[in-house]
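User: I'm curious whether this sequence folds into something compact or stays loose and floppy. Could you predict its structure so I can see for myself?
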Amino acid sequence: MTITVKLPSELEQSLRQQCAAEGRSLSEVLRDALTAYLAATPAAPASAWSLGADLFGRHAGPADLAAQRRAHLADAWAQKHARRRADH
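Assistant: Here's the prediction. I'll summarize afterward.
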């Protein structure tokens, strides 16, 4: 793969001098620099799915909770108030 990179003239001059001093090509030095940069860069953050994969499916509740949400809410409300009445 060929890539064109625009460098400030001072950086280009320093790079060329370093390559000449080491007897290495520009491409070789740039490949090594990019390899080192990418190795030092942290991996992409984990996705929400991978972070919670061990938790998904662990909740035990009514299978039809979304479809019957109003009925479940009414039942929960009634149970809460029944306990309150029993405590008084």
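Summary: Residues 7-41 form one domain. The chain has four helices and no strands.
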